[in-house]
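TL;DR need structure tokens for one chain.
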Amino acid sequence: MQLRKVFSGILAAVVSCTAVFCIGNKKIGNDTLKVTAAENSTKIMALGDSITDGYFGADGYRKYFYHSMTELGYDIDMVGAKNYGSWRPTYTDSNGVTFEYDGDHSGYSGYAIQYMTGTETRQGILETINETDMIAVNDPDVVLLQIGTNDILSAYNDGIIDRLENLVNVILEDMTDPDDVVFVSTIPYMDVEEIYSWFWAYGNVQSDNTKEDFVKIIQGYVDSYNISIKQMVTEMQTQGKKVKFADINSVIDPLTDLQDGCHPNETGYEKMGSYWANLVDGYLSDEPVITTSVTTEPAVTTNIQTTVSEITTTTVSSVTTEVPITVPAETTSMEIIYESEGVISLNSLPEKTSYVVGEELDLTGLELTLDYYYGANEHDVIYDRVSPLDYPNEFIVDMSDFDSSKAGTYIIKISCTDEIKNTYRVIENEIFFEVTVNGYQYEKGDINMDGNINITDLTILHKYLLKKGDILEEQVYYADMDNNNKLNVFDSILLKRLLV
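>> reply
TL;DR here they are.
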């Protein structure tokens, strides 16, 4: 049973018996353990294809997820059609930490969303769920669903989002607890150039395009699918269905986090495990909206003043709004409806915000988050601490104000594209920050900035390269002789030539 379920039980007890329960943290020695009223485990099912199964690496992301959740203090029970029984595997991570984990799961290598035959025959997760009755049998509180990579590999792009929605609906049929939830994730980018030969199902599409153009075509399919997943989840939420959006693609770098161009390496799996743990922790530890039980006469409409407190995960300030409430006749509860909207927020500035004349703008380290709020205490993280430069179809980075040829202060603006703005109703659609360009007074090579270029400057650079001395931040520009933003032996060579 997950933490959210506790609060609904408490509310029921308060309404019916006026009894008071205290639910919180239990201390065991110096550790704090998150507990539920009944001390039951939260049952979590990892469901998907080979990336869930753990191709290239024992149990993939699931071992990291389990370890992270237990480190956070949760008592969780991993469940699935592939049951390890009472056996608990062990794993030693890159830091030398050895831990046990629960390996049960429902990951199936090579599977598509549903059975497909044509270009390639793919077994389906849908049919496997129906055959094993795994959802009803295992009764998960949380399902982590990531599926669709094999559909795209086999050129089954037509109708892909319809198949996914049908699959999610089938899963939800057997998730009967009010606080059960299905997290539906994007799929990671693939290194298409590395696995170019895998796409033989595309036939003429592959042969009629250059490799570079074909890469763009496949990445376009991935982008389209991932965007459709976000839209599908939002639509299902408006229908009252218990789904949440997850964006695994936001944490996997196809150039460094993949083993074979498709499946993650251990670094990638570790990132996935941490992402899932943070997402599920945010859900399990979030208190539900309290619904007040009332008895009403025929339908009435009124306005009440409500205060929405500041939400700690964003920069949204406290606001007071008038919210219309309509209570239908013969209803037994009153539900407050809040306006849904997206909020874009800046997580971290670029590592470099101060320049000298002539330096190029570098936005490394810039990160933002897009949250979608659809209630007083309910929201989904659409993009979590991502670089807007990596998502040109979602974000616009306006650098037109920046002029490296002149000293001054310049504004960099970031906004959502019209599609994202309209999809998530982003009201405040622009964030910005400042960078400065400082004029320089000396010539390259004058490291100590005394107006002369001589052996003293060369000595300062030598000591720095030998780690026997420091170079001040304002001196770096003058020591960087080849303007590559690095200080090394080549700068020393160029400075020597200048002195000869």
